[in-house]
Amino acid sequence: MSVTVRTDDDCLLWAEQTGSGPPLVLCHGGPGLWDHLDPIARLLGDHARVTRWDQRGCGRSQRRGPYAVARSVADLDAVRDQLAGPRTALLGHSWGAHLALRYALDHPERVSHLIYVSGTGIDADRGWHRHYERNLRTRLGHHRPRWEALGSRDRTPEEEREWAVLQWSADFAYPDTALRDAERMATPWLGLNRDCNRAVNAEVKRELASAELAERCRALDVPVLIVDGAEDIRPRWGVDSLHRALGTCRRVAIAGAGHLPWVEQPEEFRQAVTDFLAPERGGRGR
């Protein structure tokens, strides 16, 4: 069921709810993309009442700013308040993992569990990024010349989609199916919000330069699950900084999966998440 969330500054956000059970809110990646987590909602629909949403300025939500981390946290709080209730589990992917973490740090009493999927940690120097760039070009293989040609010039809307599909194909572990999986991510094509991407990424980089984030993570008293695809082109040691800061948390590496582990290894992903959310397990432990 699709619904509209109105934020405290009257921005209209698209959202959809499916499934039944305890509340779980999903935060998509980007920044500047739209929700592509419907497969997760289907995987978990028997275990949770799942809320998906398009972040401000993205996809089916109203295209307006401001674009900032604090604003994104406030928007997520509006989604939680209007659709999930007083306390919810959060699952964030990539940039959405950072958003979910920031929300849990700001509002720990409103978060029952935090699931951090394919994030990039809290290292100030972002040392993983040069390895990511090298791995991206390697995995693109024979698609690399076309991707580089498109990336070097202004693009038509059709070329923008083609460029994104080629880049996203590197996020999957298996070359034979990577392009098909990336095409599915891009369908329907709802466009990239470059202004949102630039503004939020710049703020996150500034935020990571401070020691405050690690200090706040050390004090966080919310059960946390870190899920990685072992074949992600973003090196998984980049997340070690967060794992160390959190102390007691659970971490699962899914073999044979890239940046979107639920696509290539859906049963392993579902099992990791449902085990963590199970009441008798309590989400605790390494």
UniProtKB/TrEMBL annotation:
SUPFAM superfamilies: alpha/beta-Hydrolases
Name of the featured protein: Proline iminopeptidase
Entry similarity comment: Belongs to the peptidase S33 family.
Gene Ontology CC terms: membrane
Signal peptide residues on this chain, from the entry's feature table: none
Every AB hydrolase-1 domain range: 22-259
Sorted UniProt keywords: Hydrolase
Molecular-function annotations in GO: aminopeptidase activity
Any one Gene Ontology BP term: proteolysis
Gene3D superfamilies documented for this protein: alpha/beta hydrolase
Entry annotated with the keyword Hydrolase: yes
